[in-house]
Design goal:
0% strand, mainly alpha
């Protein structure tokens, strides 16, 4: 029988190895791993959405608008991707992102902005940029009190756009 102290040490070693391996993966491989996780959890996310829409769990339009505003500030201040927002005005970014998320998370409305492909076409977004932007999304959501399920669903929603936003 393995003693509790040895079990804890073994767990720490396994976590450290997994973390080290994750760091060795390319940004594309990390994005692909996230996409695989999303596919594996698609049924659970669909069940949650059927029980209560992501729109509702994110605080409806008001919560999503607050998220969009904070996300703009977070992206703009980010040393790694802030340059992508040099020519992006707060408005219409906040209103377009808000409406896009409202419509795609279970709320009512009609998104009038450009497609994800159109909006991101000239930005030359890399897999690394995508991961950095996704990390901003997660941080803002956590700051606003979103749970792991909501963060997972938002992450998977964004990952669904990888083929049209990453141009490297």
């Amino acid at each position: 029988m393995i003693k509790p102290m040895m079990t804890a040490a073994l767990a720490i070693i396994l976590i450290a190895c997994a973390s080290a391996q994750q760091q060795k993966l390319s940004a594309k491989e990390r994005v692909d791993n996230i996409a695989s996780m999303c596919a594996e959890n698609a049924d659970a996310m669909k069940r949650r959405q059927n029980q209560e829409s992501l729109y509702s769990r994110l605080g409806e339009r008001e919560g999503i608008a607050a998220f969009s505003e904070r996300l703009y500030a977070k992206h703009k201040a980010n040393d790694k991707i802030g340059h992508l927002f040099d020519d992006v005005q707060k408005e219409p970014f906040v209103s377009n992102v808000t409406e896009f998320l409202v419509v795609n998370s279970g709320g009512d409305g009609e998104y009038q902005g450009g497609s994800m492909a159109e909006v991101h076409a000239d930005l030359d977004i890399s897999h690394e940029d995508f991961l950095v932007a996704g990390d901003d999304v997660k941080k803002v959501m956590k700051q606003m009190g979103a749970g792991k399920d909501e963060i997972q669903e938002a992450t998977c929603f964004l990952v669904s756009f990888v083929p049209v936003v990453i141009t490297e």
